Structure formats: structure tokens, C-alpha cells
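step=predict obj=Methyltransferase-like protein 22 n=220
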Amino acid sequence: MSTQEMFIQSEIYSEIETALQALPVLCKSNVATSFKFKSPDIINGTTGVSSSEHETSDFGGCIKIEHSASTSIKLVGLQIWRGALLLADFILHFGNIHFKDKIVLELGAGVGLTSIVAAMFAQEVISTDLDIGAVLDLLRSNFKTNAHYIKCMISVLSLDFFNLDWSEELNLKIKQTEIVLAADVIYDNDLSKGFVKTLSKILSIPPRKTIYICLEKRFV
């Protein structure tokens, strides 16, 4: 039996191949994708997020995300998955209604697309992920690249679904959190159990919180 580690690739890359044109900042082996967006809350026009380079509409902005093109299963947070796109689009549509001036916590933030969009509306965004494979460094770098869209305070913190003994800083942030986001964090049985336990603990801490979870239904 081969001991070679299996690598996987997000299914969205076949749809956005023409968008992989920007140069990566943090790591030369990465790629950088431009995601065009428009929102009536930030710019005039209809809402939406798109990765198509052939879009003819007059988009108001372009989020640039550096990420891996393929990874092992344990490093999938270094890629962009469909759930992050859907959740980002939802926030663009309803940002001024549900997210304006809120304190937002994202679990499994990965390379930061959803957190960056949330930061266009929120009072503060706390982006968390497992500190593995330099994902937190990449997250910080993507925030810096898109700083001109960010309207609020940003925190990037380590959070492991299998370790509920949180740092003092993270505990303080969770006590202030009003909205919890999670995109594409359900893909492994053990990880899913850890996510549910983490979420349960977060919800047990006042104030009352609203949760938005986005995932793609997959058949294995």
C-alpha cells in the first residue's frame, strides 16, 4: 500500500481558472485569485460576489486572496471552498441589516475571504483557525492586502476544535461576540464532533449569539 499523502483540490478552481492571475505575496508556491464584488451597501448597484474575469457588469471592488491550489486533507484551510463564497455573498446582500456594527467571530476562517467581507460591515471581526501550515500568517497577509475594504478592528487568533482550553484573549473576545460564522468546516467525522463541541461552548457564553453556517452537501 502506498504511503504517499493524498492531495485534494477545491472544486471551484475549475470555474475560476481565468481569475488566477495575481501574484502571491507570502509564498511563491501559492496562487492569488481576484474576487470581484458589488454591494449597494458599499457601492451603487446590485449585490453579489463573482470570480469571473469575463463579467461585464460594473463591479465596485475586487478582493484578492492568496491561497494554495491543492493541499493534503489536514491543510484544506489553505484553499477556498464554495461555502466561503456563498457565505461571503450572503454577507454582501445583508451586511447592513444583520452585520452592521456587530462583533463577528469566524471559526475555521482559512484564508479569510468571508472574514474580509464581514469586516466591511462589522464593528470587529475575530478570525480563528488552527495554527498549522502557516494558515494564520496567510490570513493576516490577506487582511493586509485587502486593508482598503476593511472598516473595523481585526483579530487573528488560534482556535483548535479539539482543545477547549482557550487563551485569555480568545475567551474575552468570545464574551463579546454577537455573530458566529463558519464555512465548510464539516467534512470529517472527528472534526465535525470537535466543531459541535466548540460551538456548544461558545453558545453557552453570554451574550446570545446568532450563527451562520454554510457548507456544501457532499457524497463520499
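step=describe
The chain has one domain: 7-214.
step=end
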